[in-house]
Amino acid sequence: MLDGILSNMALVWLIGAVLLAIAELLVPGIFLIFVAIAAAVLAAVTFAFPDLPIAVQLAVFAAWSVMTVMIGQSWYRDYPVDSSDPHLNDRAARLVGQHVTVTAPIVSGRGRVRIGDGEWPATGPDSPAGATVRIVKFDGVTAVVEKV
């Protein structure tokens, strides 16, 4: 039975493409669709060249997968998806502009601030403990603050 299935590799690659496309719908993210496209391309190639060795098919699939992922990556970079909440998954960007309390005095530009229920390292102008400052940006995990 396996020989019968493997004798029509174009159908195998097409089924793989459909399964990957379905998985893309079920799993959050935008990645599997590009691999599905590569599998569909390979289905067309193996339909045109049915005697293509499996090793060559896998190499072509890998090359098309890399190519479609790179094309998709550049597409989303050049044409970003508009969102009603562009900072949805960027916690640091969501905190910019918030007023926070200095917990460890900022001396020589370094101290700590309370953000939510935790303390974070902070840089900014010297400020005593208890002072209120505003988050300007983040440098890694360090909040850059300014006086209010």
TrEMBL record:
Key words of the record: Membrane, Transmembrane, Transmembrane helix
Keyword Signal annotated: no
Residues passing through the membrane, by range: 6-23, 30-49, 55-76
Membrane topology term: Multi-pass membrane protein
Family annotation (InterPro entries): Membrane_assoc_protease, NA-bd_OB-fold, NfeD-like_C
Localization terms from the record: Membrane
Domain NfeD-like C-terminal: 93-147
Record has Transmembrane as a keyword: yes
Annotated Pfam families: NfeD (PF01957)
Main location per the UniProt record: membrane
Name the record gives this protein: NfeD family protein
Organism: Sphingomonas olei
Upper classification of the organism: Bacteria, Pseudomonadati, Pseudomonadota, Alphaproteobacteria, Sphingomonadales
